[in-house]
Specification:
alpha+beta, Rieske Iron-sulfur Protein, four-stranded antiparallel sheet, about 15% strand
Length: about 350
């Protein structure tokens, strides 16, 4: 075995000196002299700090009120110019600023409270084994009571009241923002969210057009085993007026064609046309768009979570987490021989929502 000598420039004595344990009871932290703060010795400084903390809590409440005022008063179409960012919505700027300052004031007040008014003493905690002794629970409870007393929560009434007030009004912006989860358009006035989610652009006589080209579809355009992604003919006009894709998300369908003898079940009598079936393109699990069709089995596969639907059997679920079948659209042809919808879907499309049983 090779003996390892001390490093060059270090003696054996120095090595032993480094390894020597500290004296029992020695604590470098405990030997640091304590310097009291101004708020520890001057009652006026303590009261001044208390007023500072309370003022920040009060200002936080004020900015929450300003948040609500800005939400109600500022038109959502108003824009302001901000260097670097360019034109941005005035409502977004006001809401972000007021709510951000409200949060900042609560945090700043808490820091000021802890630095100026809570006890400023050095505490030494001895290391112990990972397994806590039996008296640990009692010690923890005692430390909690001590911390509660030393924090001054009961002693500084002004801080306690303003803190409670700031925390009470703090969730108000979150409640107000819930309204933006549903903003009805002019066409949706008077309708409930459940009604809006349960209806689409499809009506009796709506012509079916290819998605992307908006070319009307005839039965002969779709061979057996073929698939076409389609939408209502008036979708383009609706998107230009509303400037959003909500209507597309609800009305998108797929057309598939199979031998009529292979159709085992439908969601209504005579809803196919010469073996052409129309189903919603939106998965009933979490709303992913679907277009993966296997001709041999007539299965439609969702790429997100592998829910599988049998389009030859009324779109029923054969595998995966989806709990509802794919909604089917009844179709026929118009006088010119183009495929059209005979009505809207008989059941809501897409994933389940809160009004659905």
């Amino acid at each position: 075995m090779t003996e390892i000598s001390p490093r060059e420039g270090h003696s054996d004595a120095s090595a032993h000196e480094v390894a020597r344990p500290a004296k029992p009871g020695y604590s470098p932290v405990a030997d640091v002299p304590h310097r009291p703060r101004a708020t520890d010795v001057d009652p006026k400084a303590a009261r001044r700090a208390e007023r500072q903390v309370a003022s920040m809590f009060l200002l936080s409440m004020l900015f929450v009120v300003l948040f609500v005022v800005a939400y109600v008063a500022i038109d959502k179409t108003t824009v302001v110019y901000i260097p670097v960012m360019g034109d941005v919505g005035a409502s977004n700027v006001a809401l972000g600023f007021t709510f951000g300052v409200a949060i900042l004031l609560i945090g700043t007040a808490a820091i000021q409270w802890s630095k100026k008014l809570m006890p400023d003493v050095e505490v030494v905690q001895e290391r112990h084994d990972q397994l806590s002794p039996r008296r640990a629970t009692a010690e923890a409870a005692a430390n909690y009571e001590r911390g509660k007393d030393e924090s001054g929560f009961a002693r500084f009434k002004l801080i306690r009241r303003t803190l409670i007030g700031a925390l009470v009004v703090f969730p108000i912006p979150m409640v107000v923002l819930l309204r933006d989860l549903w903003v009805p358009t002019e066409a949706d006035e008077g309708k409930s969210p459940a009604d809006i989610l349960s209806t689409t652009l499809w009506t009796e006589g709506s012509r079916i057009v290819s998605d992307g080209t908006y070319a009307p579809v005839k039965p002969e355009d779709l061979p057996v085993g073929g698939l076409i992604s389609a939408v209502p003919e008036d979708l383009r006009e609706v998107e230009e007026v509303t400037e959003n894709l909500n209507a597309r998300g609800k009305a998108a369908i797929i057309l598939v064609r199979m031998d009529p003898s292979e159709i085992r079940a439908q969601q209504g009598d005579g809803w196919d046309y010469q073996g052409i079936l129309a189903y919603s393109k939106i998965c009933t699990h979490v709303g992913c768009p679907i277009a993966l069709y296997e001709q041999r089995t007539h299965h439609l596969l969702c790429p997100c979570h592998q829910s599988t639907f049998d389009l030859a059997d009324a779109g029923n679920v054969v595998f995966g987490p989806a709990a509802r079948r794919m909604p089917q659209l009844p179709i026929g042809v118009d006088e010119e021989g183009y495929l059209v919808a005979l009505s809207d879907f008989a059941e809501p499309i897409g994933p389940s929502f809160w009004e659905r049983g």
